[in-house]
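Regression test case RT-17, inverse folding.

Input:
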C-alpha cells in the first residue's frame, strides 16, 4: 500500500544500502592495512643481522633495518587511518539505519491508520445495507 512515506522509505533504504557498501569497503581497507603491516613485520624478520664483515656491509644492513622500520611506521599509520575511517562509517551507517527504521515505522503506522479507516468505512457501509434491507422487509 502506497503512503506519503513510501518514497521516503525507499530513499532511506537506498541511502542505508550505500552506507553498508561503504562499511564493507572500510572493513576491507582495515583488513588490507593489517595484512600489509604483517607483511612488513615479516620482511623485517627476514632481514638477517650481519655479525661480521666489512663496514660497508654493516651500514647497508643498518640502512635496510631503518628502511623497513619506516615502512612499518607507514603501514601502522595507514592502519590507524583505516580504523578511524571505519568508526566514522560505522556511525554513519548507524544513523542511516535509524533514519530508515524511523520512516519505515511511520509508514507502517500510516498503513495501520488507513486500514482502520477502511474498516470503519466498510462497517458503516455494512450497517447501512443492513438497515436498508431491514426496512424493506418491514415494508413488505
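Golden output:
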Amino acid at each position: 500500500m502506497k503512503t506519503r512515506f513510501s518514497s521516503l522509505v525507499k530513499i532511506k533504504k537506498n541511502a542505508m544500502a550505500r552506507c553498508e557498501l561503504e562499511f564493507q569497503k572500510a572493513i576491507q581497507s582495515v583488513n588490507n592495512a593489517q595484512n600489509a603491516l604483517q607483511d612488513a613485520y615479516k620482511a623485517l624478520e627476514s632481514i638477517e643481522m650481519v655479525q661480521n664483515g666489512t663496514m660497508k656491509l654493516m651500514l647497508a644492513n643498518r640502512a635496510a633495518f631503518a628502511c623497513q622500520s619506516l615502512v612499518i611506521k607507514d603501514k601502522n599509520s595507514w592502519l590507524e587511518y583505516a580504523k578511524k575511517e571505519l568508526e566514522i562509517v560505522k556511525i554513519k551507517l548507524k544513523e542511516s539505519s535509524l533514519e530508515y527504521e524511523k520512516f519505515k515505522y511511520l509508514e507502517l503506522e500510516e498503513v495501520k491508520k488507513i486500514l482502520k479507516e477502511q474498516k470503519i468505512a466498510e462497517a458503516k457501509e455494512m450497517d447501512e445495507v443492513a438497515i436498508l434491507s431491514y426496512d424493506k422487509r418491514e415494508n413488505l
